[in-house]
Amino acid sequence: MDIRKETAAVLDAVLNLGARAASLTDDSPLLGSIPELDSMAVVAVITSLEEHFGFEVSDDDIDGSTFQTFGSLVGFVSSKLG
After folding, report:
1. Total count of domains within the chain
2. In terms of residue numbers, what domain contains 51?
3. What does the alpha-carbon distance between residue 30 and residue 69 come to, in Å, rounded to a whole number?
4. How far apart are CA 54 and CA 42, in angstroms?
5. Which of helix, strand or coil describes residue 29?
6. What does the DSSP 8-state code read for residue 36?
7. What is the CATH number of the domain that holds 23?
8. What does the pLDDT read at residue 82?
9. What pLDDT sits at residue 13?
10. pLDDT tens sequence across 16-29
11. What is the pLDDT of residues 29-64, one digit of tens each?
12. Which residues of 43-54 are buried (b: 16+ CB within 10 A; e: fewer)?
């Protein structure tokens, strides 16, 4: 399983990023840099990640740093997959 590619695919599916999803790197900023990623979209992304990867996210699992960069989001997904 390629967690980076699958996380990018989830972001693309929820946010309709198109070619931008393929160009995401670990340092790519998310919150505040991708206009489509507002508070409602964050909830949709979390729900989609849960469904896609088969894990559950509690409110205590998420903080502002989770969506700071694409790398931090991939790291979060990796930690949930254990």
Report:
1. 1
2. 3-81
3. 5
4. 17
5. strand
6. T
7. 1.10.1200.10
8. 86
9. 97
10. 999 899 999 999 99
11. 999 999 999 989 999 999 999 999 999 999 899 988
12. eebbebbeeebe
